[in-house]
Amino acid sequence: MSATPAAPRSTPWAPLRHPVFRALWIAALASNFGASMHEVGEGWLMTSLSPSPLSVALLQAAESLAIFLLAIPAGALADVVDRDVSQSRRKAGFWSAQRRSGLSRSRIG
Q: How many whole angstroms separate alpha carbon 42 and alpha carbon 57?
């Protein structure tokens, strides 16, 4: 009987050993921290403009409403649509928008 080598022990911090994953994780952490700061600033500004709890609640609800309304349809659409076709259409749309933007800028300047 040959002894099989033991598998390396996995820890929760193991993915952070990879530089690319670590960089993306730190960037996501910084982005989420900034978004939280933004939300606190919005609430604070709203309470200084109008101390009504309803207006503060409406502001927070309006901010998260788009995510609640679009998340499930977007996920269902992503499951149904062919990825290659969707990507080529997005690229064509971006190219068209850049083209129009460039044309409008050349007329202005």
A: 11
What is residue 11's three-state secondary structure?
Answer: coil
The length of the chain in residues reads 109
From first CA to last CA, the distance across the chain in angstroms is 80
What six digits make up the tokens of 27?
Answer: 């960037």
60 closest CA partner among 96, 88, 31, 36? 36
Chain centroid, CA 105 distance in Å: 29
- pLDDT tens digit at each of 109 positions of the chain: 566 766 667 889 999 999 999 999 999 999 999 999 998 898 889 889 888 889 888 888 888 888 889 888 988 988 898 888 888 998 999 899 888 887 666 555 5
Measured CA angle at 9 (ends 13, 21), to 5 deg: 30
Please spell the DSSP secondary structure of 30-79, one letter per residue. HHHHHHHHHHHHHHHHHHHH---HHHHHHHHHHHHHHHHHHHHHHHHHHH
